[in-house]
Amino acid sequence: MDCAQTSAHGESKLYHYTMELIDYTSAWVKGEVFQGKIMIVLGLLFLLGFIAIFRSQDEFVRGLLIPFGLIVLVLIGYGGMQVTVRPAHVAKVESLAQENPQEALDKELAKSQNDHKVYSNIVKVWPLFIIAAIILFYLISSSYWKGFSVGIMILFAGMIILDSTLHHRLLKYLDGLNHLAA
């Protein structure tokens, strides 16, 4: 839809168009925030595991320390960003949509298409790290490095799950934006 078009009902169409854009954005942000909260809770649980690993004297278990630390950082760091930063995105889109709905849609569409490309490519990279960790597990005899490789497998399996859910939600948002752009 071209927002520059005018008709007898042009103002109400523009209002409806703007509200749809805000509704799609709000739904996407609510999903992002909810996932962020889940990530923070999981991060805290992994932090407990990290503390237990830190106290362990077993070499295999100690090998899990670095990957678990990374898992904690990703879950709490990215989850925290989702919870604290994403809600402001709705206000930003709403403000721009009220000034210039077409520009707001174009910006959201471009950003979402770029994010889609990133998610589509990164999901191909994580399995390579898992494969490398599996190879490391079988090539190395040290208990520490076996634990490290298992931790890396867990880390990147989690990254696949995390990015897949973020990507799935983004695709729904992108469909809504494309519907508006049509």
Can you walk through the features of this model?
The chain is 90% helix and 0% strand. With 182 residues, it is mainly α. The longest helix has 46 residues, at 10-55.
Map the helices and strands.
Elements: H1 10-55, H2 59-63, H3 65-99, H4 101-139, H5 143-181
Helix pairs in contact: 1-3, 1-5, 3-4, 3-5, 4-5
Notable features of this structure?
single chain; 182 residues; mainly alpha; disordered N terminus
Explain briefly what this protein structure is:
With 182 residues, the chain is mostly helical. It is built from five helices and no strands. Helix 1 (10-55) runs antiparallel to helix 3 and helix 1 runs antiparallel to helix 5.
Portion in helices:
over 70%
In terms of structural class, how would the helical and strand content be classed? mainly alpha
Strand content: under 5%
Order of helices and strands: HHHHH
* Large-scale geometry: elongated
Give the mean pLDDT. Answer: 92
State the major sheet.
Answer: none
